[in-house]
Amino acid sequence: MGSGIRLGRLFGIDIVIDWSLLIIFGLITFSLGAGLFPRWHPEWGAGLAWMTALAAAVLFFASVLAHELAHALVGRLGGIRVRRITLFMFGGMAQMENEPPTWRIELVMALAGPATSLLLGLLFLWFADLASGPIQVDPENPAPGIAALGPLASLLLWLGPVNIILGVFNLVPAFPLDGGRVLRALLWAATGKLVDATRFASAAGQGFAWLLMATGLLMMLGLRVPFFGSGWAAGLWIAFIGWFLNNAAVASYRQLMLREVLQEITVARLMQTRVARVQPSTPVSTLIEEILMASGQRAFPVEEAGRLVGMVSLSDLHRVARAAWDKMTVGEVMKPAADLATVSPMQHVTEAMAVLASRDVNQLPVMDGERLVGLLRREDVLKWLSLHVQRGSPAGLSPGS
């Protein structure tokens, strides 16, 4: 699963909170509990202001989750596999295992998230109106009207515009923002070439990211920008968002290029055929001291009468206490064959990489019918890339990327 806290599953998709989310969650709660809500409602006690701020932060990230779920569920209808949604300090990310098969699916999937955020923003404002009666706020002197609102209406009044801003910001035509994916879909439709469309959209994303970084630097030097203001804190935050978007744009393009490079390579070409195998009756101590230490393998197929019955890896062995090595057998600690994902020799490596990612494993048994013919490991794919992808290649890749 990688780092983070797993919240559970929704619609068959793992929901994970990255540790970085705690930073922005704390900042939002603090800015509302110690800043905005006390300014709106001087008469509130500290407890009420902080509880309302905490609820607002939770609902904001629930809104971000709804935004990403919209992407994932619409994508699933178009044949895109999404195995996990990660919420982190900049929002959320639906992790797709494959690129959209057509530009139309890309377009609809990209628009689903911002549309959800805009709809949520309007709904929150409508609920705020219901919770308080018609909101009468004088634009020239808003303080009295806002001060008359209760906690629920105040919370909803903050959530509405924030979700609308989130939806509008994501429509900026800068890949990998949703607007950048809309741009890529339209370019894909016009040119018929996903790679060229991705290259142009990624360049637009990098240009926007550098604009944000430059704006953030100028804000730190005293420039006042409408809506964003000025100062070190705001400027550093804008520059940091720009830096993140630039890295994301480059990484998204490289990921597509890797798929292009590997799309015609079969598993048979990269798999390891000289694989040490063990039997279920092999003592764990024998595997560790005589086989594992003498081999470069980190996982071993377990066979009985020429039939694959399981796999045992370092992670399985780590769960066995040292005192039990002589008492337990491989068959007692292995993953049974029924729980293993496998690939065939003639499958494309891109398909195998999707399986590796979805199962979060480092190797896959390669099966020709019921016969084990080798192992495909992540390191084998990386080794092939390091030898065949040259610096300055048209794909924009390097061995280190």
Descriptive labels:
alpha+beta
Report, as a whole number of angstroms, the end-to-end distance: 22 Å
Report the mean per-residue pLDDT as an integer.
85
Largest sheet: 4 strands, mixed
- Count of beta strands: 9
**SS-based structural class?**
alpha+beta
Your description of this structure?
- By secondary structure, the chain is of the alpha+beta class.
- It has three domains: 1-171, no CATH class; 176-262; 267-388, CBS-domain, CATH 3.10.580.
- It has helices at 21-40, 46-77, 103-132, 143-147, 151-170, 178-191, 194-220, 232-262, 267-270, 284-292, 314-318, 330-333, 349-359, 378-388, and strands spanning 5-10, 13-17, 82-88, 91-96, 299-304, 307-313, 335-336, 363-368, 371-377.
- Strand 3 and strand 4 form a beta hairpin.
- Helix 2 packs parallel to helix 5 (151-170).
- The longest helix has 32 residues, at 46-77.
Short description:
The chain is of the alpha+beta class and 401 residues long. The protein is built from 14 helices and 9 strands.
Present the secondary structure layout:
Layout: E1 5-10, E2 13-17, H1 21-40, H2 46-77, E3 82-88, E4 91-96, H3 103-132, H4 143-147, H5 151-170, H6 178-191, H7 194-220, H8 232-262, H9 267-270, H10 284-292, E5 299-304, E6 307-313, H11 314-318, H12 330-333, E7 335-336, H13 349-359, E8 363-368, E9 371-377, H14 378-388
Parallel strand pairs: 2-3
Antiparallel strand pairs: 1-2, 3-4, 5-6, 6-7, 8-9
Helix pairs in contact: 1-2, 2-3, 2-5, 3-5, 3-6, 6-7, 7-8
